[in-house]
Amino acid sequence: MAWYRKMVFGSLTRSLVYTFVTIVSVAVMADEPASWTRLLGNNADGVAVTEWDFNWTQQPSLLWSLPVGDGYGLGAVWGNEYYQADAIQNASATLSRLRCIDLQTGSVKADESRVLSYRDMYGYEVGPRATPTLDEDYVFTLGVSGELVCRDRRTLQTRWVVNTKKKYGVIQNFFGVGSSPLLLGDWVIVMVGGSPAESQTLPPGQLDRVDPNGSLLVAFDKKTGEERWKSGNDLASYSSPRTVVIDGKTFVLAFARSGLVCIDARVGKVAWKYDHRAGIVESVNAMMPVVFGDEVFVSECYQVGSVLLKASPDKADALWKDPAKNRRKQAMRVHWSTPVLVNGYLYGCSGRNAVDSDFRCVEWSTGEVMWVDERRSRSSVTRVGEALLVLDESGGMQVIRADPTKLNVISEWDFSGDDGGTVALSYPCWAAPIVVGDKMLIRGDQNVLCFSLNPMETGP
C-alpha cells in the first residue's frame, strides 16, 4: 500500500451505487421518529440521518451538560428521550444505572439502578463499555459484568434479566464485557462467548488457555428473555454484532476474539468464519464491521491490520489484505474506533496508542492510502452528509469534509477547556459523537454535553 498521497478515481458506476445506497437509507428512515437507537446509529454505520443542513463554520451552542459516573459509552435516542448508562457508588454498593433524559432540557425523566459486582483486571472504570439498544417499547443494556437487562422504554421498569456470565460460563475478558446488543425482529442478540467447566478453574489473565463452548452469539426473545438460539464457537471481543444481507438472506456478523463469524440469522447456524487476529495474547478486536453490499471490512491495530472481504452465504474471500506485522505497509490499523464509508472511501483513526495514531482516508476497493493527517492522536468519527465530525480523546473536534484528494478541515472546536472556555470534556472521550435532528451529543469522563447545531441560513 502506498504511504504517499495519491488520488485514485473509482468508476462512475461504483460512485453512483454508493450514492444510491445512501439515498435509500435516508428514505427508509424518513418516517421514523428522530432516533439513534444503538451503537453507531440505527444502521450501525456511524452515519447520522437528518433533514437538517448545517453551517459547520460556526461552533454549536451548548444546551445542557449531564454529569455521569463511571463508563465510556454514549447513549441512545428515541424521539425526545436520551438514554444514558453509567455506574455510580452509594453508601453501601456500586450500582449500574440507566437514566432517561429529556433531549431538549437535559432533565432526568426516569432513573433505574441495579447492584453491580465487577472488578477490572487493569484498573479501568467499572461502568459500562457498551451502548444501550432500544426500540419503541424496550431498552436493552449489556453491562460490564455480563448482565443483560430489558426495561420498559417509557418507565425504565425492569422486564427481565439474564446473567450471561453465570448462565453461559463467561470467563472475564480483559476489560469485562464491551459489546452492545443487536435488535433483530423479535430477538435481541448479544455477544456472550462462554466457556466449558474445565476452563472455569484457570487463573485470571490466561485467556489464551480458555476454550469456547458454542455461545459466541445468543439470541433471546426480546419480550421474555428466553433463549432462541446460540451459535459460534469463539470467545467474545469488544466489537458488536450487526447484520448483513447476502443473496437476499439476513446474516449476523460478529467480529469475535479470533476473527469474523457469519451466522444465519434465521436458524442461528454458522455460515462461515474468517480468521483475523493478532498472534499476541493481550490484543483485542473491537471495531464494528463496515458493510457495503456483500463486502465487509474489518481491522485491528496490533499485528495483522485490515482486510476487505467478499461475502457469500457459505464463505468469505479476501479482496485485499494488509501484510501482517508490517505497519508501514498497512492501509489502516483500527483499534476501538470504527471508520465511516463515504462514496467509496473509508475515513477513520489508524493506530493503537496516541503516539502512533493518525486520521486517514483509504480507498475501499483497493486499500490505497489517499492521505494521512499525522497530527491527530486517537479519535472517533461520525458522518453527517459530507461532513465528518472527528472527536479526539482529549475533547478536541475537527469538522472535515469527506474529500479523498486531501485533508479538508472546515472547522476546529475545542471542548477540552484548554481554550479557557467553561465547557469542558475530560479524557477519555472514546465514544463517537451522536447527531439526531439538530442536536449533537458528545461524552468525556465525567459528563455528556448536548449542543444545538447551527442550521445553514437560507435566502428569503
Automatic annotation (TrEMBL):
Residues in Pyrrolo-quinoline quinone repeat domain copies: 216-332
SUPFAM superfamilies: Quinoprotein alcohol dehydrogenase-like
Pfam families linked: PQQ_2 (PF13360)
Protein name, as recorded: Outer membrane biogenesis protein BamB
The species this protein was found in: Novipirellula herctigrandis
